[in-house]
Design brief:
alpha/beta; 42% helix
């Protein structure tokens, strides 16, 4: 049963959200689930300018949080309980860590079209499937989507 569902969301690829939310909501409706929306930003290093780096990361983290909150309001509203979180780091690792931290039952995520070396899944989806201790539902995108 999927009582807590993690939805990793790439804010750069909102075109995949319709399919991902459709699958997640279908699962949630069967189990009265709650959602954890997650966006992961890559770590930025400006070397000799740590104060600029800190201010910039604070700014983009706030923007990402507002964007994620808007997606949650628009797509889940009050129909389901949900929370939204932004983390910084390696996307796959942060998704698995968030799943552990929030005691997630199911991860529902998109897999973008893979590069040749990824073969079956996009690189982040592949990393999550290989390392998560949770069930992972991969929503493949049509060949025309990114």
């Amino acid at each position: 049963m999927a009582h807590k569902i993690l939805l990793p969301i790439d804010l750069e690829h909102e075109e995949v959200l319709d399919e991902v939310f459709a699958c997640a909501v279908e699962q949630a409706a069967m189990h009265d689930s709650t959602f954890v929306l997650l966006s992961v930003l890559p770590q930025l290093s400006l070397g000799y300018f740590p104060s600029i780096e800190k201010r910039y990361m604070h700014k983009i983290t706030g923007e990402a949080q507002r964007h994620l909150d808007r997606i949650g309001e628009e797509r889940l509203g009050t129909r389901f309980a949900w929370s939204a979180h932004v983390l910084i780091g390696h996307a796959g690792r942060m998704i698995v860590r968030a799943a552990d931290d929030h005691e997630i039952d199911l991860i529902v995520m998109a897999s973008h079209n893979p590069r040749r070396m990824d073969v079956l899944l996009g690189s982040v989806a592949d990393w999550v499937v290989r390392h998560a201790r949770h069930s992972v539902f991969i929503v493949r995108q049509p060949s025309g989507a990114s």
